[in-house]
Amino acid sequence: MSVCPIDYRYGFPQMKGLFTEQAKLDRILEVEAALARAQSEVGRFPLKDAERIEAAARSGRIKLDRVKELEAATRHDIMAVVKAFAEQCGESGRFVHLGATSNDITDTAMALQFRDALAILREDLLGLRDALLDRALEHRDTVMLGRTHGQWAIPMTFGLKLAVFVSEFQRHVERLDQSRERVCVGKMSGAVGTGAGLGGKAIEIQGRVMRRLGLGTPDATNQVVQRDRHAEFVFLLANIAASVEKLATEIRLLQRSEVGEVREPFDEKRQVGSSTMAQKRNPVTCENACGLARIVRAYVVPALENVPLWHERDLTNSSAERVLVPHACILTDYILRNMTTVVKGMKVFPAAMLANLNATKGLIMSESVMIALVGKGMDRQDAHELLRATSARAAAEGSQLLDVLARDPAVGKSLGPDELKAALDYSRYTGDSARTVDRLARKLRAFRKRR
Questions:
Q1: Residue 293 burial (C-beta neighbours within 10 Å; 0-12, 13-18, 19+)
Q2: What residues contact 426, with CB distance under 8 A and at least 6 apart?
Q3: How far is Cα 18 from Cα 113, in angstroms, rounded to an integer?
């Protein structure tokens, strides 16, 4: 019976497949085989024994059921794997796990999971980033209201709004690339990290194992890979999740009935918005992403709590990591991919954006008029006070700002009727919005070429 929603509701097969019991066993066997090969290469035992161990690791004969049976007796997960593994290696089984401690194997196997998860997440980030860039270029000139504190501010373009998110997710790609060498690190230094059980060749063996597996080699460890690396990995996912929620929240706010400027995809033929209110078109995918992003961020706390282990190690991190690492990876992958689908299929309503601009009755152009007045010689502070007073009067009267300004003698002295209208034109006051989109697109084209 499934209890966790990740089993039956959330997540995609590729990422979930990295964290199955079988996938974990396969990576443990891969690490044990790499250890055997490295030890034979430095002369600790014959190459033929390492080859038998490698063949057994790939054979499929080491069954999860047998490992579980042994674990029930030994109450030790890695010892159960070692016994099941050795059973399939004949006489060479005596060399399985030689000189290693459990965390040599489990931490290195986890580093392989990190490596593979980061590869998937990188593709997710690139997919969402590129979808956002495509929509930003599509709407580079689409004028809309900019809002601060939830209030009308000045005009901008929808392209600029999306470009901000493009840039943010590009930074996550760069953070991911920069963190890989610190996060994807294993160890092979035995009990408490001295390597004594590896016959005086621990440093060489560790280097050979990590090169074979494509992982980084630590400068120094005790009995475990230090958990600041794992905390960095989880914090990266939490930071990504925070940006996903930021994007999803923006779409939700713009989809509100009284705003109506965008809408997440909705299957008009089959999708139901409410069990009773048939007219509803709820932003359920964005809301789902917001909720799950909060779960991902919550995993930062136990990841940080896992850093201060006792002395050379204790086991307080293990149970927490069995939960937080798979869940954080699966949920981050899930919300990234879902938000890519949302962005690609998002409906944009420029007519609603224009209607909302017009609903301001010109009030959002007060800065533009102030700048125009200063350009005609008025003191900046005097111009600001003039616009503050006339904007308040227009809002109180429900009048167009143009009408109130046209009656003000100080404005008439500085700006002619055509100049005043030009200063109140939304489309002429979006600054470098479009150029920012174009510049960002050029930067990302260069980034792709470097990669």
A1: buried
A2: 143, 155, 357, 364, 365
A3: 6
Burial class from Cβ neighbours inside 10 Å (0-12, 13-18, 19+) for residue 13 reads: exposed
Is-catalytic flag, 274? Answer: yes
Residue 393 has which token pair? Answer: 């009067």
* Residue entry with tokens 């600054």: 431
Let me know if 76 is a catalytic residue. no
Catalytic residue among 59, 76, 274, 319: 274
CB-based burial of residue 308 (10 Å sphere; 0-12 exposed, 13-18 middle, 19+ buried)? exposed
First-residue to last-residue Cα distance in the chain: 45
Domains and CATH numbers, the chain: 12-95 (1.10.275.10), 102-139+148-356 (1.20.200.10), 360-428 (1.10.40.30)
Beta-ladder partners of 144: 156
Of the residues 2, 149, 257, 311, only one is catalytic, namely: 149
Tokens of 264: 């997440």
Handedness of CA 375, 381, 382, 384 (dihedral sign): positive
Tokens representing 67 are 């490992």
Each residue of 249-305: pLDDT tens digit? 999 999 999 999 999 997 777 777 766 776 778 899 999 999 999 999 999 999 999
| Residue pLDDT, tens place only, 342-377 | 999 999 999 999 999 999 999 999 999 999 999 999
